[in-house]
Amino acid sequence: MQTVAHVSISTMLDLSHKKIVVTGGSGFLGSHVLAHLRKQGATQIFVPRSKEYDLREKEVCKKLVAGQDLLIHIAAHVGGIGLNKEHPGQLFYDNASMGIHLLEEARQAGVAKMLIVGTACSYPKYCPVPFSEENLWEGYPDEVTGVYGLAKKMLLVQAQAYRQEYGFNAIYLILVNLFGPGDNFDALHGHVIPSLIMRMIEAKEKRARQFVVWGTGTATREFIYVDDAAAAIVAAAQNYDGGDPVNIGTGREISIKDMVHTLKKVIGYTGEIVWDVTKPDGQPRRVVDTSRAKQYFGFEATTSLEEGLKKTIAWYLKNIK
User: Fold this and answer.
1) Do residues 166 and 103 make contact, with C-beta atoms less than 8 angstroms apart?
2) pLDDT range class, residue 188, cuts 50, 70, 90
3) Is 172 known to be catalytic?
4) Which among 53, 123, 148, 269 is annotated as catalytic?
5) What is 19-181+223-252+286-303's CATH topology?
6) Cα–Cα dist 47/59, whole Å
7) Which pLDDT tens digit goes with each residue over 228-248?
């Protein structure tokens, strides 16, 4: 993979007088990013709602970015394994078209900086662990989530091409699995942790003797608490102006089996965990090298998995149940 414009920490960007657009700002990650932007003094933040702004439309994106200083692109059509298997075409089109139009219209409008949130689903299915940004192009992603991952990965290609040809300051972050308060608690279309939390609490309440989990449990993942991820995005927006993609994660790997048993302990479920081995595991291992984030803009995650799970479960019981 090409390495572009090796730039590390720059002068911190003062957000207090910047006009900022955050796509997906009303969503799970976006709402936490807004809180961190405000902590850093940002007051002029606009959050487009999907009902009024269809970001798949070029003219809509043109209208949105006019006169803005900073564009943070978080909006995505995203979900768990079930959604990826059901709607790969829709996921590709929605995610690629949103990013392509926003990048083009932002550079045409003279937006000073754009931050794009990518995904660890973009990494090759079989990749040296921990995943380094240099490994990004060394194979095809996992088949189940690969279409979504590739749609997001094309925005890195576009961002680097625009930097090279137009000098457009677009930066690209690669996020691992998120979890935390405000997540999508949906058994089929949600990500692994919120789906498991919802189902396991229900199993506990019904005193179910068994709890079924997809796969073998041997696959590993890395999970970052949403508030940590939001802090990383704002730190990058303020302090990083380079063309290299940057991993955002914890650098800590855990098997799905161990994560489920940690969840079982925190929730207090006493039944048996049963593994449905007829269902896919997804990518065998996933954990990223986080050294660039520390080097380029001083970010390190601080919330442990168990601490994050406790906060997430408490929020779910208070707000959803």
Assistant:
1) no
2) low
3) no
4) 148
5) Rossmann fold (3.40.50)
6) 17
7) 999 999 999 999 999 999 999
